[in-house]
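hiii, so i know i said id send this last week but things got crazy w the move. better late than never?? heres the sequnce for the chain we talked about at the cafe, plus the structure i predicted for it. fair warning i was half asleep when i ran it
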Amino acid sequence: MQLDLVLYLSQASHALTLELTAALADLGITPRHQCVLQKALPGNLTQNRLAELAALDKTTMVVTVDELERAGYAERRPSETDRRARVITVTEAGEEILAKGQQVVSRVYADVLSELPAAQRKSFVDALVTLVEGRLANPVTVGKPVRRPRAPKLA
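okay and structure toks below
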């Protein structure tokens, strides 16, 4: 019987996203909020570029930044180089929640990876990064887009 790689990767992604969602809920953020804040932290990224880096469509990015702005974690500012574009800036409160969130994420990742023998953890992560940044970095175009599951909304 052939291994169903899509099923295993999908189940792993879904289960890990649920764990992160539950763990970050006490902070009042979602894994998507954490991701966007982390990608935006270096600064000077337009909303469109940030959407690309976070692998989010433009509509989802707008909603996410709206939520982060309402929470006081991010701000949209005019770009210095393109008056039509907005740059997303992480606020001081955003930096604080990001740091707390990173502790939670690191704890969840360590717990999940602890299921693997110590000698396999680095190899597993390295192999996954190699696939995602290499062979799977540029997905093929299909006629009807495959929908990704939605992340839970901020309360």
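btw The first strand starts at residue 45 and ends at 46. thought thatd interest u
miss u guys!!
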